[in-house]
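Re: [ENG-882] Designed sequences occasionally contain unexpected residues at chain ends

Forwarding the minimal case from QA. Structure tokens:
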């Protein structure tokens, strides 16, 4: 995210509040929020709703964008809004909360937010439009695909690979060196002990396939 450009948040729900907190802690200037037409003129945590997602083109020249729609069952809405920004000629910002730690030897892609007390360790590669939620831990050498949501206190141990559009639930653990394909949901509190081969919904310890996708 350019330090000179303010940010515009797309989606004004509960996840947006967490992003606002992180952005304020990092000293980012928030220009406003885009949401449904009936929200225009209202405020969220003191920040105005200034339009809808059809207004992205109006702001693309002077602001960066963060998609603030959360994702659990699927990342389709986040994915759609991300591409809507790009199609309008806009740029995605990046937010790292003041209490988060991203190693200078790691990389996080545009549109990604790293929320309070999260850790992205050395050698990790995090894709675009990701949510690294509060207290999540991405260890050394991990590759996190774009549009992934690592929920609160999820632990991704070293050298793991998480495929695009996957969701890793709160307090889930992925063992060292494991791979998870794209479009997976790992239920809260699950433990992935071995690499997974099919896209689907997994739960338990060890995590087992409950539903294919």
């Amino acid at each position: 995210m350019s330090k000179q450009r303010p940010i515009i948040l797309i989606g004004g729900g509960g996840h947006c509040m967490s992003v606002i907190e992180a952005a304020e802690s990092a000293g980012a200037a928030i220009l406003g929020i885009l949401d449904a037409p009936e929200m225009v003129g209202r405020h969220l945590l003191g920040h105005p709703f200034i339009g809808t997602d059809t207004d992205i083109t109006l702001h693309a020249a002077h602001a960066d964008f963060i998609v603030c729609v959360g994702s659990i069952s699927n990342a389709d809405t986040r994915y759609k809004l991300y591409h809507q920004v790009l199609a309008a000629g806009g740029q995605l910002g990046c937010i790292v909360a003041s209490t988060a730690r991203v190693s200078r030897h790691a990389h996080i892609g545009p549109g990604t937010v790293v929320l309070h007390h999260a850790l992205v360790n050395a050698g990790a590669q995090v894709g675009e439009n990701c949510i690294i939620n509060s207290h999540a831990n991405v260890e050394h050498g991990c590759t996190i695909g774009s549009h992934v949501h690592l929920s609160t206190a999820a632990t991704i141990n070293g050298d793991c690979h998480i495929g695009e559009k996957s969701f890793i639930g709160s307090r889930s653990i992925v063992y060292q060196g494991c791979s998870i394909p794209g479009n997976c949901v790992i239920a809260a509190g699950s433990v992935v002990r071995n690499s997974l081969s099919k896209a689907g919904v997994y739960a338990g310890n060890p995590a087992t396939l409950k539903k294919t996708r």
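QA comment: On inspection the terminal residues look reasonable. The chain has two domains: 7-92, 96-195. Proposing we downgrade this to a documentation issue.
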